[in-house]
Specification:
six-stranded antiparallel beta sheet
């Protein structure tokens, strides 16, 4: 709701009341307004006392003064505006202008614009709104200023109606704007309307509610008119209006006549349905759209961002007859977001719902080069050079002997992070054997390339290892939400009776915590594996094992890193959104994961692009009815899936619907 402070306020000047330095009291809707005097209390204060007519003594109630800085003045304006909500809060610029004017004048009657609005009297300290009064009771006020005291006449607090009536005269429909004109008939020319509220009913289906419309006043000769303007309307909707006026002190008039009309403006641009598809052959994302054809369409602007809520930039303006556009300025396996907007001869259309697009590619990554393999402690370290920047990661394969007939995968996906990458193989190695290795690259769209050249290494036990061998071939694999650590028992060292398993965390800055024992020698007596069920998702760990030979122990094995692979839940596919009984029904396909907990449903108001979480529902559901919508508004919806670890999926594509 917008309350318009018109220039009419400046015409209502309390010159006679303040020039004579009398204490004047006016009846407001929520109390008694005490006007202390004409002088602005910059250096001195007004001391205000009150007594009821049936009381003997005055009681102190307030001491008022002019604030000394702009922030204090703004705070005073905000405080009194909260008490008097029929005033529109002044903007920062307007508050600054008022403060400057009051600072440079000594009396209120010399500040032409602001002396017609009680809110500025309250803020400047020349008046006070006493809200602690009883209806039907009379009061007298005494004000002391610069050593002199003056009393007001007795005034009864009894809220009174504004003696004014708004009569409907005419209507005008200008494009998407409705303008109504009312003749204001008033009985008291000294107390004219100050502001007005507008009430509106949509499509004859909602009650009359406060509307975000403006209403101001205009003199034409001796006649006073109220002019109402309403925007953001929908074609072929019925609207009903009435207004209610208020004086400076919040006293309300009776409601005006109710006016109903059909908004039939013809230049409203239609809703647009936008789609995005990957086109690998043309190496781009193809956008297509459709909408109901209208006259006066000039162009179609296309906007793009790499984030759903990011900064969208216009990338192309298509002609009115175009129905598709190919965006070739994209990279594979990166999500892009788009919306389009129609341009008419006189207005812009609403933004379409945002859609996401991703370029899929059939590019096969180059095979890794400069493969090297060498024995390192109890394992074999394989290293290679990164050549293809589109590579997502690598898999390492191993075979027996220098010319193996069969290779087996021995690593998970090793992400490509640097120019040179390496992997330490400690799984199932036997001393005295020869092993061969090759590496395959994986592209961003998970296409696996050809194998690299093969390198071989002879895996031999050193003299030191023969004497005091730490466990070898420590391997960690994921078992559900736990890590299973397996190591090879050395059959040559028959005195081995038990093992100790240690673990530490690797921080994001590559610093590491201290080693902690998670399984003792007593727990791992004659065992060569252990399942660690205390790990956390998105945390990297290192494991090492020590062997015990009677009362002696070996060195720790080579540390093996492990991080639980955890996939975010897939975003649900929103199948449809449609109107049903003045509500919006959403339906979607359930996410195919076993540990799904819930769905979060968000609504986007296309008027101001505000997003709101409107519901969190159980994962067993695949539909939701939004009953908190407003007829005539356009909304967008998207859904986020949440698993039992409270990990959220990315946003689903947004679907839009006009509530009818």
């Amino acid at each position: 709701m917008k309350y318009i402070l018109t220039s009419l306020s400046a015409m209502l000047i309390f010159v006679s009341a303040f020039a004579q330095q009398k204490v004047t009291v006016k009846v407001a809707s929520n109390g008694l307004a005490v006007f202390c005097g004409n002088e602005i209390p910059s250096s001195l204060h007004y001391k205000i006392e009150r007594k009821a007519t049936d009381e003997t003594d005055f009681q102190f109630i307030e001491e008022t003064f002019m604030p000394t800085n702009l922030n204090a003045f703004k705070g005073r304006l905000s405080m009194w505006n909260a008490t008097c909500p029929f005033y529109e809060p002044p903007t920062f610029e307007k508050a600054g202008e008022a403060f400057a004017a009051l600072q440079t004048h000594q009396t209120m009657d010399s500040v032409f614009y602001y002396n017609g609005i009680p809110l500025y009297y309250y803020a400047s300290g020349t008046a006070y709104l006493d809200v602690n009064v009883q209806e039907g009771k009379s009061y007298v006020y005494r004000v002391t200023y610069n050593g002199a005291s003056k009393q007001s006449d007795a005034v009864m607090y009894k809220p009174q109606a504004l003696q004014a009536k708004a009569k409907f005269r005419s209507k005008t429909i200008l494009g998407s704007i409705i303008q109504l004109k009312y003749f204001v008939k008033t009985k008291d020319r000294n107390n004219l309307p100050h502001v007005a509220k507008v009430y509106r009913s949509n499509n004859l289906q909602t009650p009359l509610l406060e509307a975000d419309a403006s209403c101001g006043f205009q003199f034409k000769g001796d006649s006073l008119f109220a002019i109402m303007n309403d925007t953001l309307l929908n074609k072929n909707f019925y609207y009903s209006y009435c207004i209610q006026m208020f004086d400076k002190f919040g006293n309300a008039s009776e409601m005006s006549d109710t006016v109903s009309l059909l908004d039939k403006y013809e230049n409203t641009l239609p809703l647009v349905y936008l789609y995005a598809h990957s086109d690998a052959k043309k190496n781009g994302i193809r956008l297509s759209w459709n909408f109901k054809k209208v006259d006066g369409l000039r162009s179609i602007d296309i906007y793009k961002s790499t984030q759903f809520d990011g900064d969208f930039k216009m990338i192309h303006s298509s002609t009115a007859n175009d129905t598709a556009f190919m965006d070739n300025d994209v990279q594979p396996i990166i999500s892009y977001y788009y919306f389009i907007q129609l341009n008419g001869s006189f207005e812009k259309g609403a933004q379409s719902a945002k859609v996401s697009g991703m370029l899929k590619t059939e590019h096969q990554p180059l095979a890794p080069q400069q493969i090297k393999a060498k024995q390192k402690n109890n394992g074999v370290e394989i290293s290679w050079q990164l050549l293809d920047p589109s590579t997502r990661g690598y898999y390492v394969f191993r075979g027996l002997n220098y010319h193996p007939t069969k290779f087996e995968q021995v690593s998970g996906l090793i992400l490509a992070k640097e120019n040179e990458t390496s992997f330490l193989d400690t799984i199932g190695l036997n001393y005295g054997k020869v092993y061969s290795y090759c590496v395959k690259a994986v592209s961003n769209d998970y296409t696996i390339g050809k194998a690299s050249d093969t390198v071989g290494v002879s895996f031999m036990k050193t003299e030191k290892q023969m004497d005091m061998q730490a466990p070898s071939s420590v391997f960690v694999k994921q078992m559900g939400n736990a890590a299973k650590i397996v190591w090879q028992r050395d059959t040559l060292l028959r005195k081995t009776t038990a093992y100790e398993l240690l673990r530490r965390e690797v921080k994001t800055d590559n610093s590491k915590t201290n080693w902690q024992t998670i399984a003792t020698a007593l727990q791992l007596k004659n065992h060569s594996s252990f399942t660690d069920s205390t790990i956390k998702i998105f945390t990297k760990y290192e494991y090492t094992v020590k062997a015990f030979y009677g009362s002696q122990s070996s060195e720790q094995s080579v540390a093996t890193q492990f991080e639980m692979e955890y996939e975010k839940p897939l975003a649900p596919l929103v199948v449809e959104a449609f109107n049903l009984n003045n509500a919006v029904v959403l339906r979607w396909e359930k996410s195919e994961i076993s540990n799904l907990k819930s769905y979060k449903i968000y609504r986007v108001n296309h008027i101001d692009a505000a997003e709101k979480l409107i519901a969190t529902i159980n994962s067993t559901e695949n539909s939701y009815t939004d009953k908190s919508v407003i007829i005539g508004n356009e909304y967008g919806y998207y859904i986020i899936a949440v698993d039992k670890n409270s990990v959220e999926s990315v946003k689903s594509s947004e679907v839009g619907v006009m509530v009818k």
